Amino acid sequence: MLQIQENISLKPYNSFGIDVKASHFAEIFSEDDLKTLFATDLFKTQKLLILGGGSNILFTRDYNGLVVKLSIKGIEAQINGDEVLVKAGAGEVWNDFVNYCVDNNYAGVENLSLIPGTVGASPVQNIGAYGIELKDVFESCTAFKIDTGEIKIFNYHDCHFDYRESIFKSELKGQYIITSVTFRLSTIPSINTSYGAIEAELRLRGIIEPNIADVSAAVAHIRTSKLPDPSTIGNAGSFFKNPIIEKYEFADIVAKHPDIVHFSTTDGKIKLAAGWLIEQCGWKGKIVGQTGTWKNQALVLVNHGAATGLEVYDLSAQIIDSVKSTFEVTLEREVNIL
Ligand code: EPU
User: Among the atoms of ligand 1, which is closest to the Cα of residue 296?
Assistant: First the structure.
């Protein structure tokens, strides 16, 4: 039975652990729940916020509107030869889905182990880590159109994926609720350890011919050593995107900062490591009131216990200013600010 709660704390529903209130809150366990909610006046009249794991959001104030928490579960696999199409409900915890795939030897998402959040949120910002992005394994998703209640299928080309971007964050922002995602995986793994840290970690473990469980375990280990666990220290992963700049802009910067960490992108641009830029400006591990940057990864802002969203936001603004004045590079926030 669909329940709409009033005036509830969103602290358990955001990985930063920011204590703000929502005026209305509904948890959705099925597409039918969504249809029931659609028929209510509240759904039509209130501002809506769709929440998955709440792991890419910073609340800076109470939410005066209806928060819809997606908890649609279920995973089904359809095997055709060496290819497997795996359909997962939007509310599946991302890492539970990864573990299901690894346990069944469905290869493709093992490098994305331990990313916080839910399956339904994964296409929105085209999650990525350790050499793989969601778009590399995305087949399609189903989504509920907020103004009409129709269900639409989005295929790969409809989604306009880019680095931490998709149509759901741009042109169609706020228009759809993703209810399930289908992934194209394989029973014949093509192991991707090109990201340096994975190879080094496998070597340390004495593994020469890794299977997907080995890769998943190595990635999980690397993530745990670098990134704070949101269940103990509130955070939303990388707070900023790695800036992508043109080669001519890079030429000016590298002339002044010869040791700048950078990577070439496939389309001839340069990606800078935001964590390095922030560290060089002296922010790594700094504690500012109840917030700060993580000691092992300066790109992650954390809540040391009782931070307010505004405190975290102010810190992010100071970091943007100092990176701008040192490197003439403008950092863009990756986390949604509300
Ligand atoms: N670096 C520093 N200091 C730091 C952090 C990083 O010098 O404090 C340097 C590292 O030495 C390294 C480079 O920056 O040479 C890249 O660091 P890392 O491998 O940690 O990756 P990242 O670029 O900082 C990105 C993603 C992460 C993802 C990792 C691994 C973005 C915004 N972030 O971080 O994703 O886990 O690569 O693939 O693209 C997230 O989006 O929330 C997230 C955690």
Answer: 8
